[in-house]
Amino acid sequence: MLKEYVQERDGNYYVADSRVSLNSIVYGFRRGESPETICQSFEVLKLEEVYGAIAYYLAHQAEVDSYLHRQDDRWRASRHEAESLPSDLRERLLRARDEFHTARP
After folding, report:
1. What's the 3-state SS for 6-71?
2. Shortest CA distance to 42 belongs to which of 24, 27, 64?
3. What is the pTM (predicted TM-score) of this model?
4. Could you tell me the CA-to-CA distances from 41 to 24, 27, 50, 54 in Å, in that order?
5. Per-residue pLDDT averaged across 64-77, rounded?
6. How far apart are CA 73 and CA 67, in angstroms?
7. How far apart are CA 78 and CA 84, in angstroms?
8. Tens of pLDDT, residues 86-95
9. DSSP H or E stretch at residue 97
């Protein structure tokens, strides 16, 4: 039986049966992190799944690189939109985000 390590859901790629984006694995891999180091960053993943995601990336590199490029473009566009918010609203949103992250264990 062939095991799938990557799933496409709603136009995005994830490590199968998880909420971990393929982006996270690929960016770590590109930075030169070992699969073991990447795995330590995601306690929900097994080492096998990280290797499987990397193998998927290597087998579909052009497709995944194109996807990552589109994701980067979307991120830049949404950041630009956020910067064009009224300054008081933007400040309140940033403050709420910071409070959320500092309140998390």
Report:
1. EEEECCEEEECCCCCEHHHHHHHHHCCCCHHHHHHHCCCCCHHHHHHHHHHHHHCHHHHHHHHHHH
2. 24
3. 0.72
4. 10, 12, 11, 15
5. 89
6. 10
7. 10
8. 778 878 888 8
9. helix 87-103
Question: Residue 101 has what DSSP assignment?
Answer: H
- Cβ neighbours for 84, distance < 8 A, ≥ 6 positions apart: none
Q: What is the largest CA-CA distance in the chain?
A: 55
- What is the rounded distance in angstroms from the CA atom of residue 72 to the CA atom of residue 62? 15
Q: How far apart are CA 58 and CA 64, in angstroms?
A: 9
